Amino acid sequence: MGPCFVNEKAELVALCSLPGITRRHVKELLTLFGSPAGAWEAIRGGYSSGASSQDRSREWRSQSLDVNPERYLGSLEARGILTVVTGERGYPELLKEINDPPFSIFYRGKLQDPGTKCIAIVGSRKATQYGIDAAEWLARGLAQAGACVVSGAAYGIDSAAHRGALMAGGATLAVLGCGPDVVYPRSSGGLLSDIALKGCILSEYPPGVKPLKYHFPARNRLIAGMSLGVLIVEASHTSGALLTADFALSEGRDVFAVPGQVFSKNSEGTNALIKNGALLVGSVEDILEELDLAGEQTLPLEIASERLTAEERKSLDALAAGPCDAVDVARQNGLAVVEALSLLSRMEVMGLVRRGPGGRYHVTSQSTRK
Amino acid sequence: MLAKVNGAALVGMESHQVQVEVDVTNGLPAFEIVGLPDAGVRESRIRVKSAIRNSLYEFPNRRIHVNLAPADLKKEGPSFDLPLALAILEATEQLKPSRKPGFLAVGELSLDGMVRRVPGALSIAMGAREGEAPFVLVPEGNAKEAALVPGLDVYGVSTLREAIRFLEGSTSFSPAKVDAPSLLCENGRKGPCLSEVRGQEPAKRALEVAAAGGHNLLMIGPPGSGKTMLARRMPGILPPLSLGEALEVTRIASVAGLLPPGGALLTTRPFRSPHNSASAVALTGGGYPLPRPGEVSLAHAGVLYMDELTLYPRNALESLRGPLEDRQITIIRSMVPVTYPARFSLVASMNPCPCGYLGDPERECSCSVGDIQRYRSRVSGPLLDRIDIQVEVPRLTRVQLMAREKGEPSHSVRNRVVTARKKQQERFSGSGIFCNSEMAHSQIERFCALSPEGERFLGLAVERLALSARSYHRALKVARTVADLAGSKRVEVEHLAEAIQYRCLERSPFS
Questions:
Q1: pLDDT digits over B415-446, tens only?
Q2: Which CATH entry fits the domain spanning B2-167: 3.40.50.1110, 3.30.230.10, 3.40.50.1370, 3.40.190.80?
Q3: 3-class SS of residue A184
Q4: CB contact under 8 A, A359 and B394
Q5: Which residues pair with A231 in a beta bridge?
Q6: What is the dihedral sign for C-alpha A152, A157, A161, A167?
Q7: Predicted ipTM?
Q8: What is the mean pLDDT of chain B?
Q9: For helices B81-91 and B160-167, angle between their N-to-C axes, nearest 10 degrees
């Protein structure tokens, strides 16, 4: 890559980092003035039609006089934030194909190799335990099969997907709706630093940009755009995850969905997707087959080594009909409530059941696979 | 002429003897009180004057100087009315006492010469015994309470004239008598019964474990799930009050002026439920010039129930940390530090989320994840750290409610609690603590030793359920209590398994 291109990249990155600039503004500037250098020249000269207000255009102008694009790029790198722009090598292949790819991408960590298959796992932030378990389990399977799990680092399903992939030692990619150095949600700080170490955190927004409401639909378009297919684990019918599914459809990517109980509000969206033709996912193999990844190595699911006692088996039978609380389990097993509490807790530590809200237990993927 | 009668000033729970000195001299008529009296004491001039006149004695139309010694101690309240009136009458030679001098008198006078009740009579009587007063003269309404002090003659009087007659040697008076132990047996069994709560067996069990080990308890559940109902039944499953505890409870209530009229010993464990608008000072105690007991002390030996824990002001919640740790509270105001006991069981409740319906089987929760986290973060980590048991109290559907049994009555649960407490007393005898919840780290290591199997199980649990280090020790303490309830010497896997269940807030996906 010649010095000329390096210069042009720096100018483009700096252009995309102007405060409040949108992709539409950049596009307009580039069409009007031909190149990032031209756009800078125009801004320096006071061009302002793209800016939304007087203040903003003054700000851009002063920035254009102060900022040295190359030094700016260097300062980003010094802070561990790397960039890749359209047309550069390393720019995600699949992202190029979407309707409006970002001009430049800011990222921390290591961008996955060009050949890696990316699959997005998204869903409700306020997920149920079932959704979290399913997301973690499927992400683990996908990561073990060598796929990269893409998600949005939000609460609930997103975090579970990242966690699952990290647990399997696989690759994972978090697409943020804020600058790549901004920790949002704040409680995901630990997870994000893990991802930055072992995977990649990526954003089309320059460092320091706050997570604004309208960034998230745009972020969802990147999640779908980066991936071969999008798996929606849990979504109510108003969930943002459905937007991601729409993007995936409009870009011709596959849409997968995990079915849920018909009574669960959190599964309304996914069940509707399945009704409309999304592929029903009951195991990792369903996704792998569809995407022709089946040939790659898959590891067997972890199975609890402990042998089941009669009581445990009975409890699992009682729970098979659906989640219920300790009192119901006690009654069906003829145990005292105290005994049932202790038994269920032991089974939870063994990984056979999980406790959900309201003190109701349900069986896990492990126990159903026996 | 000069006369001296002893009164008493309360500083916290302690009573200080105060000498009321009266000098009646010639000069322009005046009535002056010195010795740091507050407004209540200064107003006694009016009451004393009218009470003496209306008792058909003569109020001297001369110069009256009153000194309350020691002069550097602040005095408050109307309890100096009676000694002041007696001293004036003695100084004017209208009263010639024939009883032993050095006695102590307290009481508020009304204008017609009646003697009204005063707060803190029990503490005053205790102080009088320590000061070796020959007897005390108290208002009739305080006589039973003051008579709880053994080895001290307490005489109740209802009017000023009666007090004078008594001091002049009338024989028709006999000291008040109260049989404290029999009072304790008589009405120790009151209050609502646990069998009135349908369903909620896991929560009832948590209540039992909390009572047995002296653990603090947090109940998390939607509105209408029965959290308050359960909490109100907590005093009923705690062991009955011992005589020492009952005296302490009575003393605090007496200082706070909360004893029922004519009441002697409080025999049931207190249940205090301050509203969530309570300030930090209301909870810990305070006031001017001398600090009064707050809710933590009023709940001493009983239950402090804080409904909707997240709605209390942040600083009020944080102020609980000290008393929860030290089991007493020292309040320092301008004049003196005052220490009140505060060994209470904290029972708190909160909703799972701001709207209250997270995890409800029938209603949809309308909160965002951020809302829920913000709501829960109002209870700080250090405070949660002092709550060993966190339990979910789900709302039952009507069908479930009808199907579920009534369960055990309070007294049979209490029997198990008493047995478990006895074991703990044996275990901790001489170490200065009484129950499992008070164990320090070294004691946990000593008394909660696990079998290798138990170690492995707990390790696995910490890893799989993502429990924190502090949870680890909480779980061990609670497991010790569960083992005590089961009558087991060692802490086994099943006890641990039950104990780790009681960490539900920490394990929630929103924390």
A1: 999 999 999 999 998 888 889 998 988 899 88
A2: 3.30.230.10
A3: coil
A4: yes
A5: A121, A256
A6: positive
A7: 0.81
A8: 90
A9: 60
Q: Does B296 touch chain A (CB under 8 A)?
A: no
Which of B501, B502, B511 would you mutate first to test chain A, the one with the most A CBs within 10 A? B501
| DSSP string of B168-217, one letter each residue | TT-S--------HHHHHHHT---S--GGGS-S-HHHHHHHHHHHHHT--E
Q: Provide the shortest C-alpha distance from residue A255 to chain B (in Å).
A: 26
Our CA-based measurement puts residue B224 at a distance from the nearest CA of chain A, in whole angstroms, of 14
Q: Which residue has the tokens 């869903």?
A: A123
3-state SS record for B412-479: HHHHHHHHHHHHHHHHHCCCCCCCHHHCCHHHHHHHCCECHHHHHHHHHHHHHCCCCHHHHHHHHHHH
What's the token pair of residue B412?
Answer: 């049979």
**Inter-chain Cβ pairs, chain A and chain B, closer than 8 A:** 85
Under the banding of pLDDT at 50, 70 and 90, the label for residue A365 is low
CATH of A118-290, one of 2.170.130.10, 3.40.50.450, 3.30.1050.10, 3.40.50.300: 3.40.50.450
Whether the pLDDT of residue B191 is over 90: the answer is no
User: pTM of the prediction?
Assistant: 0.83
B500 touches chain A (CB under 8 A): yes
Chain B environment of A237 (Cβ under 8 Å) = none
What's the average model confidence in pLDDT over B350-367?
A: 84
To the nearest 10 degrees (0 to 180), the angle between helices A3-16 and A23-33 is: 140
The 10 Å Cβ neighbour count of residue A338 is 20
Distance from CA of A237 to the nearest CA of B (A): 14
Length of chain A: 370
Residues in B closer than 8 angstroms to A344, CB to CB, are 501
Which residue from A226, A215, A148, A142 is spatially nearest to A176, judged by alpha carbons? A215
Site of tokens 């975090």 = A159
B455: chain A residues, CB-CB within 8 Å? none
Q: What is the CATH number of domain A310-368?
A: 1.10.10.10
pLDDT tens-digit series, residues B193-214: 888 888 888 999 999 999 999 9
Please enumerate in sequence order all residues whose Cβ is within 8 A of that of B475, keeping only pairs 6 or more positions apart, or say none: B458, B461, B467, B496, B499, B500, B502, B503
E strand or H helix that includes residue A118 = strand A118-122
B296: DSSP letter: H
DSSP annotation string for A211-263? --TTHHHHHHHHHHHH-SEEEE----TT-HHHHHHHHHHHTT-EEEE----TT
Reply yes or no on domain B186-429 having CATH 1.20.1640.10: no
Decide if A269 contacts A236 (C-beta within 8 A).
yes
Topology classification of domain B439-511 = Helicase, Ruva Protein; domain 3 (1.10.8)
Domain boundaries, chain A: 3-78, 118-290, 310-368
- Residue B154 CB partners (closer than 8 Å, separation 6+): B125, B135, B136, B138, B143, B146, B147, B175, B176
Written as six digits, the tokens of A356 are 């959900």
Among A163, A327, A337, pick the best mutation site for testing chain B contact (most B Cβ within 10 A).
A327
DSSP of B233-251: THHHHSPPPPHHHHHHHHH
* A3 shares contact with chain B (CB less than 8 Å): no
- Residue B90 CA to residue B97 CA, distance in Å, equals 8
A357 shares contact with chain B (CB less than 8 Å): yes
Residue A324's H or E segment, with its range, is: strand A324-325
Cα distance between residue A13 and residue B367, in whole Å: 39
Angle between helices A54-66 and A36-44 (to 10 degrees): 110
Which residue ranges make up each domain of chain B? Answer: 2-167, 186-429, 439-511
pLDDT in the model for residue B187: 58
- Decide: B73 and B9 in contact? Cβ < 8 Å: yes
Confidence check: pLDDT of B336 > 90: no
